[in-house]
Structure formats: C-alpha cells, structure tokens
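ok so i was messing around last nite and threw this chain in just to see what happens. nothing serious, just curious
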Amino acid sequence: MCHGIWPKSGGLCIGLHLLSVSPGSRTGTIGVIIGERDWWGKGVVSEIREAIIADSFERLNLQRMTAQVRVSNLASVYNHRKLGFVHEGTMRSAAVEADGTRVDMLVFGMLRSEWLARKERSRGNGS
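result:
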C-alpha cells in the first residue's frame, strides 16, 4: 500500500508512506519518503507513521512491523526508537549513497504486543 502525505492545511502531496504486508507471516514493512525538504523535522513522519502502525496492528491484525534505515539517517533512527521500534540488526554495506559510497542499513522491528503495551502505558499516563 502507498499512502500519500498531504499538509493538513491543503496543498500538494509532500511525500509517500509505504506499507508492504506479508499475509502469511502477518508482517508489515514500512518506509517513508518526504520529498519536500521544508517539511523535514516537523513531526510529519512521526504522526503519519504512528497512525499507520496503529492501523496495521489494530485493524489489519499484523503481528510484526519492520523497517530498514540508512545508518546515516539519524532523524529516522530517532523516529523509529521514539515509536518503540527495537534495533534488531545491521546489514553491512547494504545500500549505496548517491556518490557511490556503500553504507550500512539498520533493521528495526516491533511486535504487536509491544505496540499494545506502549499504547496502554500512554493511556495510563494520560497521553
């Protein structure tokens, strides 16, 4: 599935959020592209990613979510950890930068039970 991301105030699409589902294992893999640099660092990715993860675990009944992040993308690493993802491994030299440099990819994962426990803790804190 591909979800377009539009500003709440209207206007043109600023990016895409991708969700690939493996029905047999009930696993979803997510990714995001924000093409408009003016929107970087404004919480757009966290907001949309949180909504898609909630929908995936609660409505689609997925059991696991995964994501891969370039080791150099510190904002994305932070975003995944903030949402409760766990670093599960590193794929060495798995991606190529625009200049041809090879970089590591970090693999993150989250289980449905972890998401639901996080949601319950948030409710208990009044969040």
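not much to say yet. The mean pLDDT is 91.
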